[in-house]
Amino acid sequence: MTKEKKVPFGKNAEVLFANKHLGKSTLNDPVIISRLFKRITNKTLKNIRPDKRLVITRPFRPASETHTGNIVNRILALSETGVKALLAQTLKDFAHRHKDIQSILMNNYQKIYGYIKEPAALSEERKLLLGSCFTMEYSIESAALFNPSIVLYPMQNNLQKGQTRVIFSFRATGEGHISSIVFRSALIDKDNSIFLESVSPFLGTPEIVLNATYDRELFKAKLEEMGQLSEAAMAIHKLLPASFTPEEMGQAVTAVRDSNAFTFADLDDTFVHIKWLAESNYEVFFPHGQLISERVLFPLSQNESNGVEDARFVRFVDDDGSVTYYATYTAYNGREILPQLIETKDFHHFKISTLNGPMARNKGMALFPRRIRGQYAMITRSDGENLYLSYSNNIHFWFTGVKIEAPESPWEMVQIGNCGSPLETKKGWLLLTHGVGPMRKYCIGVSLLDLKDPSKIIGRLEEPLLAPREEEREGYVPNVVYSCGSIILNNELIIPYAISDSDSHVASIPVDELLEKLKQR
Questions:
Q1: Domains (ranges, CATH) in the chain?
Q2: Once rounded to an integer, what is the mean pLDDT over residues 497-521?
Q3: pTM for the full model?
């Protein structure tokens, strides 16, 4: 993996969280929120806020074919001198905001060159100008940077003694409340002071590859789970080989359409959902020259058109010692949600696939960081209200589960969920939860699960671990503190958390102190 730009510890680095010992706190104190944690409140410290300067490019297409044609004709009518002048001004305004603006413009020109009768006769400048008229910028963090998770960086090299490098992931939200996943790297000192490494002013564009083949029966099972296994879908299924390519699926769709056995309405609805499901499984590749802060997982498939939400990253160590980073997230198209799984070894190559089965419904699944009794284990909230524990031999399929925790405290009367993957300690699994109470106020709690049998809760705080303070209540969604994943480092629990769906903070607590309180239940 390409080495990140090394930031000298304490120099040219943004201090996120300087760990100052505040004196021993008392866990029995009702003011637990202000005394238990070391938060980023000191005037010399900074929170993690959205950076509105970070932009990506997106293709722009007018609503009508006529409008597209009119734009093309106006550019074609310009003199070559006029083309060069307008292109020069465009590049002056935008080239410094992107690493390779000309490649971006040429790619977007290729999307509309079918509107041109003699494209070979065009100069390179006119092609680039045409591409610029069908390109737009999108500020991915213009609205919020929130719901963070934290994992160890894959490579722990070029560090000073006692340092650890980590990756923060965030849900970034821009215009139209479209969410994507972005990353930051940071150095953590042995006393758990946190320094954010340099953030690149550029965002990169990945190479996108749809899955080469699909399993026919698994595809059918997912359509059935979605309630979309219509007679038309069954007819298409019968024409597919056991392992099929997108081209073979297209041939089956065409054959069923040509059979005239179904109405256009039935076929259109079936085709939409088949295409939607097929596009939900893909891979993206970021060049190895890109910094971690330049990589953004922006919605690519139709089912993600309104956002990729709340990625819960976990560093998973398999029984053979191999390490894979997984993240569950929610794909949203404005009407329906679809639980998805991210898989990566190096944060350059990401594989995206659907999660399946009755336990992989609703939002907020979190994978355990290792197998338990030879199986994958997941905390789920399939009913939207309670927490369940599910086991599976296949990480993509979750069929059965047992309810392990229900709302019971005053601050979680509406529902509960998890705040990321369970963390292993010598006394049990630490499970951070979020509870929703009156007026939809979100707080963060914690439970302790048995190491050998995580369905058993052996400890639980009766009061919240974190709740929004008065100055943290205002934001895009008020009265919320929320996390998608924490880490134990240097015997402290480090919790990155979002406030009111706007920006992000960090808190920590000694693990032994927390376990002592949990074991008192």
A1: 14-53+140-207+281-518 (2.115.10.20), 58-139 (no CATH), 212-278 (no CATH)
A2: 89
A3: 0.85
